[in-house]
Structure formats: C-alpha cells, structure tokens
Amino acid sequence: MAGRGKLIAVIGDEDTCTGFLLGGIGELNKNRKPNFLVVEKDTSIAEIEETFKSFLARSDIGIILINQFIAEMIRHAIDGHVQSIPAVLEIPSKEHPYDAAKDSILRRAKGMFCAEDFR
Question: What is the pLDDT of residue 109?
Fold first, then answer.
C-alpha cells in the first residue's frame, strides 16, 4: 500500500452500493475480498457483523460507510468501535431517512461538549 491512500468500504442496500460502485470505490484486496457488502432481505445479521468486523481489521480501509438502518442491526458492534480509523459513518438510504438521534458518532460528539462550553 506504499504510496496509496486508504479505501472506502460500504455496507448498504443495493441502491447505495451500486451508486458508490459506479463512483469507483470498488476494490479487491490481495485475498480477493471486496470492500463492500450488498445487504439483501436474506442477508443474516451475523454476516453483516462479520463483514463489519473484517472491514475494521483491514489496514487498507480508512472509512466504512453503512446505511443507518443496517447499522441499527449491529449497533452493539458499531458502538464498540472507538478508534478514529477506520471512521464509521452512518448514511441514509432511499427507503430509510437519516435520524441523527441514532447516529453513534454524533451521540459521542455531543457527549464531549455541554451547553456551558459554548458560552
């Protein structure tokens, strides 16, 4: 990876993954593992969690994008990740709007500050 940047990984529904793949994020690592997972109706929660943990362990991934409704399925694993890299960003999907109250990074950021800090 010398001289190369880190990858963006995506865990999302078909529309989300297709959009990012058309944007050029699709890569295979040296073990022929992709940097994305298309979550369908028959995709198990165990498979989603296993893929998420494998993305965390990969040194070539710098950002993990995950649809928020999928993140809710593995919330315990996402909340357990406290390192800054790879960054885990929850994004909306076509069928499920973004809810800031559910976003783990936003909750952590709010916990770092209180209203008195801004006075």
Answer: 64
